[in-house]
Specification:
712 residues; alpha/beta; GMP Synthetase, Chain A, domain 3; 3 domains; 22 helices; globular; disordered N terminus; AMP-binding_CS; 4-coumarate-CoA ligase activity; ATP binding
């Protein structure tokens, strides 16, 4: 036979065999008989019992950090970009924006970081802190945050974590409820503390992280309060001059009281022990391949969120490097980056990062808008490359050829990957459900192909996986494995957890449902936390210990198990509203579908039980709506005026209706009326949490009059 045909047919035959193998679903989770309330339970397919520690002889977070610092000594650990200048730029409409000119990353190695931790730890003791007094960290994500956290652990000090965007009422509640005596903060947070200082009952000491312009706030705090006010550096120097022996914690000691960002009402403080957090870290070690000292992690999400705290703690444990940034400086085109200055991702070139869906949606929309704006040959190439890579992911041999892979990488996807630095090998999405559309888009654009069997054939590795967990479970629950290219699911149970579905008859979700069991998600394992601080009533409502001593958390989320043991989140108890004629509307499901409209920056669906239809508040995407208005020749004075125009409202409503049809929503799920909002919903405005989840009740009250008009 002609060698040419042999060379052609062999890869095709092997590819077809691989496709056949793919059809046999890999078991990622398997049924398990566990105690507690009856339900349908699944465990990780590789572990009979929940794991608690991956590191021999390590049982607390303090031991884990010390172990890593001694092993990786001179490897870079904490990286911070040098601030060259701050500049104020004005837009044509008269608004002012701060832009940052940032330099390269400057690094502190493991040995230096450990020394800083020991010094700061001793400094806290020398300041006069007494046993059982708690320390709050109320600051933006940065290296000092991590140093302070580890320093507190070395003295068995419980850390109270507070979002830097928290409002005055919630901030005051958090500090007073936990009787915090020492607060570590930045400039913006110090100003907030001063404003509510007269309401704080127990605060004695404030330690500020030095940054430009903070001297004014320091002076006010020193002159108008009774607090002892010292800089971060002063406390470290105090400890260096008078070292104090470590007072290491036990696994059962509370490491962190983490205040949720509070999507409803005042935030609740979740008590996490060292054992709880360590269980989640140990489980992730078994899922993400080859974690180690070659990895560089992009740190920019709030460290007061368990997703970021767990991720950074794990990175430090495996010898990786952590480079700090912010959501406003993440990419070259981020809002606070001065033109011509590299964004954090470009400067750091990370291999790993975590993200919340809102961030990934922005990346997707940014790429699509840039491609559409170029048009012509560039858009055609992108569309063809996208479809070819999709074919490869779906198992088609036509999309799997190595030469073609290299071609599309060079022409299209290398440029897209450069948005996040070019070296990303894995992204974990958490904090909220990620749409299947965004997950598939990011997988295709950032995905990597690995040679397999033959040079001409490649195996796809999904660079983005979804995880599911809660503050109450230390972010542990489920996790997508790197070779799972499906979308819309959150993976199989992490090895630290059992996941159980229990019947919710009222909502129509039963474990006997076909073709997949459905019900409320209950998580059990060593990662399930102690409960809510000083809130026994709420703790007893959602936490249960079974007859075997295993602790379970009732999430309120509704899920279903796929045949391979992977979980899909399909609803939430609190998000389901019954309309006037008895139809149920799942607000989160509808919002996720309608967010696909190009005119939607953010959206909240509102359903009233006394009406037969729902309505929508839409934060309009300014660029898209203004582009449409220009094409229509529609006159307006500013964006707020455009959002009031009847023609604009009709255009957005038609777009939402189209998105609803594409998602196969029912007529009663499609909003009948819409109100366009010109101003973004941000954590600073109090309308969304720091994880960018909607604060429904706050939004409802804020736009109460608008909602009333929509129902009039």
């Amino acid at each position: 036979m002609n060698p040419y045909f042999v060379g052609l047919l062999v890869p095709i035959a092997v590819s077809l065999l691989l496709q056949k193998r793919r059809k046999v679903e890999k078991k990622r989770g398997v049924p398990v008989d566990v105690g507690g309330e009856p339900g349908y339970a699944i465990r990780n397919h590789r572990f009979e019992r929940p794991v608690e520690t991956h590191w021999e002889g390590v049982n607390t977070l303090a031991e884990l950090f010390e172990h890593a610092c001694k092993e990786y000594l001179y490897m870079p650990l904490l990286g911070t970009r040098k601030l060259i200048s701050r500049e104020i730029e004005s837009s044509p409409d008269g608004r002012s924006f701060e832009k940052l000119h940032l330099g390269e990353y400057e690094w502190k190695c493991y040995a230096e970081a450990f020394k800083s931790v020991c010094n700061f730890s001793s400094g806290l003791v020398n300041l006069g802190r007494q046993d059982n007094e708690r320390v709050a960290i109320f600051a933006e994500t940065q290296a000092e945050w991590q140093i302070a956290l580890q320093a507190c652990f070395r003295q068995n000090i419980t850390v109270v974590t507070i979002y830097s965007s928290l409002g005055e009422e919630a901030l005051c509640h958090s500090l007073n409820e936990t009787e915090v005596t020492t607060v570590i903060c930045g400039r913006k947070e110090l100003k907030k503390l001063i404003d509510i200082g007269w309401q704080l009952d127990t605060v004695k000491r404030v330690i500020y992280i030095n940054e430009e312009g903070i001297s004014a706030e320091v002076s006010i705090a020193q002159n108008s309060t009774s607090w002892s006010v010292k800089s971060f550096e002063e406390v470290g120097k105090l400890g260096a001059e008078a070292p104090v022996d470590a007072n290491m914690p036990l696994p059962s000691d509370v490491a962190v009281i983490m205040y949720t960002s509070g999507s409803t009402g005042l935030p609740k403080g979740v008590m996490m022990t060292h054992r709880n957090v360590l269980a989640t870290l140990s489980a992730v070690m078994t899922i993400v391949p080859e974690l180690g000292k070659k990895d560089i992690y992009m740190a920019y999400l709030p460290l007061a969120h368990i997703l970021e705290l767990a991720a950074e703690t794990l990175m430090a444990a495996v010898g990786a490097s952590i480079g700090y940034g912010s959501a406003l400086t993440l990419t070259d085109t981020s809002s606070k980056i001065k033109k011509g200055t590299l964004g954090d991702a470009s400067a750091l070139r990370p291999t790993l990062m975590t993200a919340v869906p809102a961030i990934l949606d922005r990346v997707r929309d940014g790429v699509r808008k840039k491609v559409d704006a170029k048009g012509g040959v560039a858009k055609k190439l992108f569309d063809i490359g996208y479809s070819r890579r999709l074919a490869a992911i779906n198992g088609s041999w036509l999309g799997a050829w190595g030469v073609e892979k290299l071609l599309w990488d060079r022409l299209v996807f290398t440029k897209v990957r450069a948005i996040l630095g070019g070296n990303i090998r894995f992204v974990l999405s958490g904090g909220a459900p990620l749409s299947g559309d965004t997950q598939r888009f990011i997988n295709i654009c950032l995905g990597m192909f690995k040679s397999r069997i033959l040079i001409g054939l490649c195996n796809f590795r999904a660079p983005i996986g979804q995880g599911y967990g809660l503050t109450e479970t230390c972010a542990g629950g489920t996790f997508s494995e790197y070779d799972d290219t499906s979308v819309g699911r959150v993976g199989a149970p992490l090895p630290c957890s059992y996941i159980k579905l229990i019947d919710w008859a009222e909502g129509g979700y039963l474990t006997t449902d076909s073709p997949m069991p459905r019900g409320e998600i209950v998580i059990g394992g060593p990662n399930v936390t102690k409960g809510y601080f000083k809130n026994e009533a709420k703790t007893s409502e959602v936490y249960k210990d079974d007859e075997r001593g295993l602790r379970w958390f009732y999430s309120g989320d509704i899920g279903r198990f796929h045949p391979d043991g992977c979980l899909e989140i399909i609803d939430r108890k609190k998000d389901i509203v019954k309309l006037q004629h008895g139809e149920y509307v799942s607000l989160g499901k509808v919002e996720a579908a309608l967010a696909m409209s190009p005119y939607v920056e953010n959206i909240m669906i509102h359903a009233d039980p006394f009406h037969s239809y729902c309505v929508a508040l839409v934060v309009a995407a300014q660029n898209e709506l203004e582009r449409w208005a220009l094409q229509q020749g529609l006159a307006y004075t500013d964006f707020a005026d455009l959002c009031q125009k009847h023609e604009a409202v009709v255009e957005v409503l038609e777009s939402l209706t189209k998105a609803a049809k594409q998602a196969r929503l029912e007529k009663f799920e499609t909003p009948a009326k819409v109100k366009l909002i010109p101003d973004p919903w941000t954590p600073e405005s109090g309308l969304v949490t720091s994880a960018l989840k909607l604060k429904r009740e706050v939004i409802r009250k804020t736009f109460e009059d608008d909602l009333a008009q929509l129902y009039a």
